[in-house]
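User: My instructor asked us to take a sequence, write out its structure as tokens, and then describe one feature of it. I'm not sure where to start. Here is the sequence I was given:
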Amino acid sequence: MGIVPGQIYPGDVPAELSILFLIVKTVLSVTKVDTLVVIERAVFRHRTANVMLVADAYRGKYIWQSLYDFIFVLSNTPIKNQVVKISENEISAGLNASLVIFLGHNGLMDFQFEEYPPLEKEKVKDCIVLCSKSRQYFSPIIKKYNANTVLLTEQLMYPGAMVLEAAIEGWIKGENKEMIRIRAAESYAKNQGISVKSAKGIFSKL
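Assistant: Let's start with the prediction itself. The structure tokens for your sequence are:
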């Protein structure tokens, strides 16, 4: 899968992988997974739309695993612990995902994988990658798996959850990529205290 020196990612600061399949204002459950790789899993349901979000927080030193899981989901390959139980129901958060999201540090700036999983089936997934310079590093992978890019970045940036929330709201409403880009820029500008014009330059014009 790949190896990354542990000293680069000390402690347990999560590199987050969010697998979105059906989003999110009300917390349904937060599970302290506390495994070797994943610290916590949270499941959310949107207040009005029939949409749910499953977010896994990975231990920082296992960022390579979060990236590999992201790639596996894009390729429609089953991953470990992808089945989520909600009450009496079970949902496959990986294979049934409509939107797949990586949010965190861009580990591909530090290492590359030697092998990638094959595309298992032609189920097109939407994807968002919120990390520094994601278009430069992730576009070849996204193209390989025929995924539909919703939001990428051009520059170094802070991958705050407020940007993800803004982008997902636009995605739920069926907005086009430029409208979602503007939503992300407005959210980022407010958080960072910069102009919307400057913030727009952070997000790729797709």
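For the description part of your assignment, you could build on this observation: The chain has a mean pLDDT of 80. Try explaining in your own words what that tells you about the chain.
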